[in-house]
Amino acid sequence: MNIKEKISTAKERIKELEVLISAWEETLPKKEFGEKNDVITPTTNGISDVLLSGTLGDYYMSEKREY
User: Fold this and answer.
1) For a surface tag, which of 3, 9, 18, 44 has the fewest beta carbons within 10 Å of its beta carbon?
2) How far apart (Å, rounded) are the C-alpha atoms in residues 53 and 7?
3) Residues ≥6 apart with Cβ < 8 Å to 45
4) Short-list 21, 20, 37, CA closest to 29
5) Cβ-count burial 7-43 (b if 16+ within 10 Å, e if not)
6) DSSP character at residue 54
7) Which residues are registered as beta bridge partners of 47?
8) What stretches of 1-67 adopt beta strand conformation (E)?
C-alpha cells in the first residue's frame, strides 16, 4: 500500500467516524441555550477560584475594600 492509498483510506475512515460521532451526538440530551454542561466551578466565597488566582484575587483579598 503506497502513501496515496494510505491517505485515501485515512480520509474514508475519518468520514466514517464523523458520521458515527454525528449519530452519537443526536442521542445526547439537548441543553437549553446558556445551560452549563455539568461543569462544577470551584469557588471561594462565591467567587470563581480561577478569577481569584489573578488580579481579581488581589482586589478581593485586600483589606482596603469598602462594603
Assistant:
1) 3
2) 46
3) 60
4) 37
5) eeeeeeeeeeeeeeeeeeeeeeeeeeeeeeeeeeeee
6) S
7) 44
8) 43-44, 47-48
At 4, the amino acid letter reads K
Amino acid identity, position 60: Y
C-alpha cell at 65: 475594600
**Amino acid making up residue 40:** I
Q: Residue 32: left (phi > 0), alpha (psi -120 to 50), or beta?
A: beta
Per-residue pLDDT tens digits of the chain, which is 67 residues long: 799 999 999 999 999 999 999 999 999 888 777 776 677 788 877 778 888 888 777 777 777 656 5
Q: Would you say 52 and 58 are in contact if contact means Cβ atoms under 8 Å apart? A: no
Written as one letter, the residue type at 32 is E
- Report residue 52 as a C-alpha cell: 481569584
